[in-house]
Amino acid sequence: MLDMSVLLAVSGPVRVGLSIAAGIVALVLVLIALSFGRLWIQALVSGASVSILELIGMMLRKVPARAIVESRIAAKKAGLDLTTSFLESHYLAGGRVLNVVKALIAADRANIELSYATATAIDLAGRDILDAVRTSVNPKVIDCPDPTKGKETVDAVAQDGIQLKAKARVTVRANIARLIGGATEETIIARVGEGIVTTIGSSISHKSVLENPDNISKAVLSKGLDAGTAFEILSIDIADVDVGENIGAQLQKAQALADQERAKAEAERRRSMAIAREQEMRALVQENRAKVVLAEAKVPLAIADAFKAGNLGIMDYYRLKNIGADTAMRESIAQPKKDSSS
User: Fold this and answer.
1) pTM summary value
2) Number of domains in the chain
């Protein structure tokens, strides 16, 4: 009787503990059922079953279980068997799972070869794989130049100096094989713009460009501008060509003005040199006159020395004076008479 009473006393707490444990398990099962039951049933009836343990693992790894399951269901319905582990790993790597699945479905429907590994690699590279598949199926048109960048036309000057303003529309198709590492639309626009400028610049006359604008398209398209890009250029269409300014005439006018200014500067330089030369000659004349005055001042001294030395007599001196007087008289007679009215 003692052993039975002890057993009953011990079994009471055990039963309580088991009841609590059973309640906790039941509560956990209820929470799991509430959290994942509907999602689990949806995957099951869609033929893309996912185990409860996988759903719990997604919760613990902080992966959106609904997005993964719905992506798997969509792939399964399209005939693509993508496991949840593949989808989870792409999500954890920072990829857009639903976008990749939609791209794979679209590529499969369009008979475009696209593997899951390639799609996830393109997505992780920052490219919109779904948009690339759509562009591969339905080519898109790119405006050249891009009007959103502020420039409306590609401006170029023909050899006759006339400016032409062109607009082009480039039809491209995505090249999925070159999406990783391939250049973007900006490169296509830049290359096409460069080709238009080169083609117009090599034209003898702007009239030939206006008469046959399709020559621009042919010349630019033949350059293989899509090399190294993520697109394949299908066509280049010149939407509009307008005549701009006469750049050649403006350049000639500017050159003429520059030549005129240079000629003025050269003339001013020569005038300044002439004035400087004139001043130099005047200074030289004054210098020579001073020398003459100095020389004339020595004449009386020389005469006095000649008198002292006996080399000059009084009669010789008077003859010199007479000669000087005659010379002065002739000079006065030779000078023109002044007008009395003045």
Assistant:
1) 0.60
2) 2
Q: Is residue 320 part of a domain?
A: no
pLDDT at residue 7 greater than cutoff 50? no
pLDDT tens digits for range 173-222: 888 888 877 888 888 888 888 888 888 888 888 888 888 888 888 888 88
The pairing of beta strand 162-174 with beta strand 154-157: antiparallel
When pLDDT is averaged across residues 217-231 and rounded to a whole number, the result is 84
Model confidence at 342: pLDDT above 60: no
* Together in a domain, 79 and 53: yes
Residue-number span of the structural domain to which 38 is assigned: 25-136
